[in-house]
Amino acid sequence: MPTARLIAFALVATVARAVETPAVLAPQSVWVVSVTEENDKFAPKNKDRYYTQGLKVAVNRGDHTFFSVTQEINTPADTSTADPSLDDMPYSGALYFGWGYGGILERGGRRDCLFSLEAKLGVIGPSAGGETIQNKFHDLIGTPAAAGWGTQIPDELLINVDAEFRRRFDLDASGRGYRDLIARGVLELGTMRTEVLVGAQLRWGLNLDRSWGHSYIRHSNGYDPIDTLRSKDVRPDFAYWAFVDTQLEVVVRNYATDGTNFRESRGVTRSPIVLQCSVGTTFQVRSCSATYFIAIRTKEFETQADAHLFGGLKGQFLF
């Protein structure tokens, strides 16, 4: 997989350069490293289909820049046959490197708006390594391999530019910040996904101002401001909240349903409107954070059997 190796090399080179030249960062600069794993095995029923696995590793630097590496894997509902139905989601994988810039807007002393812009570059198709990752993992846990990877959509260059905006509203009349609402809007443009998304996340708990809410691999940028985690010398050193999240997606194009842009491939008729709802919880202790969530999505293509459930785990660490 030469493309996959090239993307991995680019990430290593970027990290090495940053470590060798610390003078370009602010004097007290810190890094936030986030690892997010999404998989339908984390949700009830465990159907192992459609968007079945996603992994993102993101690094946020103290100068507002961030970068990430992400892999996505999609399969049909029937993974036992070597030639799945043409009415089912095709096999596909995506592997891409992201780089972007984000910040918190100062508005009259208030820091309640966040923006980020991210460029993504990678590959869709066999070079993304979806078959290798999925079937090696199935071997590890003793489950049958997916048989139809030979029908996956072919290699194609992945280029996307995604913009995200969030606004936080304090809903606690006492002023203690026990409840808030984070509204968001996302615009994705490119060969991977072209869509507009609006969503909102309702949270309740303790010390909510330490985070801008949970984000999802496919529908948000990799920007997590440094303020989301505190060093051990800053109090309070504990935070907790539960959240309910919903989002509406207006989909113009999605490689997972439509297939490739410039080459002939399998594909299905996408649903132009997709709704996702999720529930989850987050714990923060000093410079570490952990999140778990479960999500349900309406049909992403017209011949899809039913709604799809998946879950996720996210860990964040400050250095």
**Relative helix content:** 10-25%
Distance between the termini: 32 Å
- Which term fits the overall shape? globular
- What is the chains' assembly state? single chain
Strand content is over 45%
Q: State the total count of DSSP E strands.
A: 12
Query: How are strands sequenced across the largest beta sheet?
Result: 1-2-3-4-5-6-7-8-9-10-11-12
Cα-atom radius of gyration: 20 Å
Can you give a write-up of this model?
This protein is mainly beta and 319 residues long. Helix content is 11%, strand content 48%. It is built from three helices and twelve strands. The protein has a twelve-stranded antiparallel barrel with strand order 1-2-3-4-5-6-7-8-9-10-11-12. The longest helix has 19 residues, at 2-20. The two termini are 32 Å apart. Mean pLDDT is 87; it is low at 1-28.
Which characteristics define this entry?
319 residues; mainly beta; 3 helices; 11% helix; globular; disordered N terminus
Secondary structure elements and pairings:
Elements: H1 2-20, E1 32-39, E2 50-60, E3 65-75, E4 92-107, E5 110-124, H2 130-141, E6 156-170, E7 179-190, E8 193-206, E9 238-254, H3 255-258, E10 273-285, E11 288-297, E12 308-318
Antiparallel strand pairs: 1-2, 1-12, 2-3, 3-4, 4-5, 5-6, 6-7, 7-8, 8-9, 9-10, 10-11, 11-12
